[in-house]
């Protein structure tokens, strides 16, 4: 968990969570405007609503703040995907719903996704590995949905893993390539076309309404 990765002099878990939420929100605003490297810890403290001294009670370095930001972004994505996965419906409907929910979330979090991928290289090796592991876990969630919507043994584990990564990247591409894609497609068009590509590559068609 994030609290185990980042040192805090404060032992009140509720207060640590509250302050770090403020810190993440403030840091994101600054990273969007200035980027990680041009942002100072003093600016983060001010934007978060407390002093630089208070800031250092909850983190040790600016890289700790970046880690908390990346961890928060992945947590939001994971929670949203889990909610859709747990909704009742046929396996195929679930794949379509999860894909759509993921793409819409990538649209909502465009700035955050771009920041995370631009700056994750600045993390230390161990914290970077933690963040990358969270990404692997999300890809595995997509992989399980893919496998359950197909006849047993109709797709190899490697192909399922590759398709899950394709979906993962196609969602993020809406953020990374927005300067071009969003001139050509609405979000709805992008989701519809990408979903059809995904289903065709799996040799299945889009589910009809009410199909089980």
Automatic annotation (TrEMBL):
Keyword Metal-binding assigned: no
Stored InterPro entries: Homeodomain-like_sf, HTH-type_Tx_Regulator, HTH_TetR, KstR2_TetR_C, Tet_transcr_reg_TetR-rel_C_sf
Record keywords, A-Z: DNA-binding, Repressor
The UniProt record lists the keyword DNA-binding: yes
Record feature DNA-binding region, as residue ranges: 40-59
Domain HTH tetR-type: residue ranges: 17-77
Pfam family, one: TetR_C_24
Any GO MF annotation of the entry: DNA binding
Protein name stated in the entry: HTH-type transcriptional repressor KstR2
């Amino acid at each position: 968990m994030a609290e185990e990765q980042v040192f805090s002099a404060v032992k009140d878990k509720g207060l640590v969570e509250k302050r770090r939420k403020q810190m993440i929100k403030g840091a994101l605003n600054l990273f969007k405007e200035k980027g990680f490297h041009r942002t100072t810890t003093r600016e983060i403290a001010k934007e978060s609503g407390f002093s630089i001294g208070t800031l250092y009670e909850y983190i040790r370095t600016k890289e700790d703040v970046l880690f908390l930001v990346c961890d928060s972004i992945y947590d939001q994505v994971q929670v949203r995907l889990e909610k859709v996965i747990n909704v009742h419906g046929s396996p195929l409907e679930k794949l379509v719903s999860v894909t759509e929910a993921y793409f819409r979330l990538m649209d909502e979090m465009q700035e955050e996704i771009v920041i995370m991928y631009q700056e994750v290289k600045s993390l230390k090796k161990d914290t970077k590995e933690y963040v990358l592991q969270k990404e692997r876990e999300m890809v595995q969630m997509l992989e399980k949905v893919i496998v359950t919507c197909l006849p047993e043994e109709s797709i190899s584990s490697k192909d399922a893993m590759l398709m899950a990564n394709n979906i993962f990247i196609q969602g993020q591409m809406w953020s990374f390539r927005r300067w071009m894609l969003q001139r050509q497609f609405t979000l709805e068009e992008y989701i519809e076309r990408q979903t059809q590509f995904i289903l065709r590559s799996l040799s299945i068609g889009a589910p009809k309404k009410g199909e089980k």
